[in-house]
Specification:
Blueprint (H helix, E strand, L loop, with lengths): L6 H10 L9 H33 L4 H19 L1 H13 L10 E2 L5 E2 L4 H10 L1
Antiparallel strand pairs: 1-2
Helix pairs in contact: 2-3, 2-5, 3-4
Length: 129
């Protein structure tokens, strides 16, 4: 953020009589990333579930309409997290439930099993890769 436009920085400069620099900590940036990731993934998931519900209850297929939005979201995740992580994120949104509603287990390349119930658990898993 530009220091001249930050009202807190401006007030501190006026009080102290010297130039003040305020920067965001790495911990704060990481927390913001986590919150934004979870918010976006949750909205993506709700939108996908809404489309499924519309089809199941009313035989209205939202697939073609929503495809552009999903493609945009996936592209932005590829830019931010890369292909592999985006594939895992998309799997979580689109395929984490079996037809009977049971939560599926993600098995990684080392044959480790991961039960990922929430977008926060997904974020933590993605960040460990």
């Amino acid at each position: 953020m530009e220091q001249d436009k930050n009202p807190i920085s401006k007030q501190l400069q006026d009080i102290l009589g010297t130039k003040v620099s305020i920067t965001e900590s790495a911990k704060t940036r990481a927390k913001k990333e986590q919150e934004m990731f979870c918010k976006i993934v949750d909205l993506w998931d709700k939108t996908y579930q809404r489309g499924n519900k519309m089809f199941d209850e009313f035989q209205v297929d939202m697939g073609e309409y929503d495809a552009y939005f999903y493609s945009m979201i996936e592209g932005l995740f590829v830019m931010a997290y890369g292909e592999l992580k985006t594939e895992i994120i998309a799997w979580w949104v689109y395929e984490r439930f079996a037809e009977d509603g049971e939560l599926l287990i993600l098995i990684d390349e080392q044959e480790n099993q991961h039960e990922i119930k929430t977008s926060l658990e997904l974020f933590k898993f993605i960040k460990k890769l």
